[in-house]
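Marked as duplicate of an earlier ticket. Keeping the data here for the record.
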Amino acid sequence: MNWNEFKKTQNAGYLFIVLGIINWSGNFVAARGLAGIIDPATLNLLRWLMATLIFLPFGIRSFWKERVQVAKLWKELSAIAICGISLYDTLIFIAGRTSEALNMSLISTLSPLLTALVAQFFMREKLKPSMFMGIAVSTFGVALLVTDGSINRLLNMHFALGDMLILCTAMMSAIYNTVVKTVSGKISQTTLLMSCCLFGTLYILPLYLWETGGTIVIPPMTHNLVLSLIYLSVFASLLCYLFWNMAVEVLGASKTALFYYTLPPASAAVAWFVIHEPVNWNQILSGTVILVGILFALYGFPSKFMKQKAHSYG
């Protein structure tokens, strides 16, 4: 089996997801280190401007070759850029100023459910009941992780304006995953990523100018900021979006969105490896619950078990 055949298989789709999650999981660690150093829209603009310049030599030829098709799909590509790049990260950073980490984590888990609903009603994807049951189990796993197993933290949650922004990003994620599936196959993955870079950077500009009061402000380029921008541009942007989009093309929006639940434990693993944050048993347990929920959503009950259960009721 050659590469062109392999990249269309289910195994390739899962491989792309793993690679996407690995590249994305360090995003929150890097963002945490930049908190208070650089404003949200400025960080997002510099991140994607650098990503665009890095990818330009590799993607511009394909983009130009498929420019007619890009022009036909400009509405879809604009939706992808706005929901997945321009507004998404910017709103998350803004929300972090008023929303508690617990609220942000739990509200974000609505993304796979919203993606499944959008895919079902607008894309006519046929979803099994096990998909929604798996989403519920994985959501419980995330709740277990971010609350450290304490029900009192859930009962004492307070909602702020930032929580509404996080809810908006969850919906944006659902739109992004669904629209990516609609354009997959109509343009190449190289052109899709190049379009994301160009459109996304363009749509960040109004947010940046609003943030700076209409003036061009460039923050001091410290050593840590430059290294963080390189990581965010290459790994958490270019490679992450490329692998994620390839996964959506193979597996569909709903199945790919399920793996969003692996971000919290994956981020914890990266934080443990990079900045030596401790890992406790609750994190291991919640990660296991999340994985069980994903497997259940993908495969449901084993067929043999279902046949035995049906026979027992017969």
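See parent ticket for discussion. Residues 186 and 292 are 34 Å apart (CA to CA).
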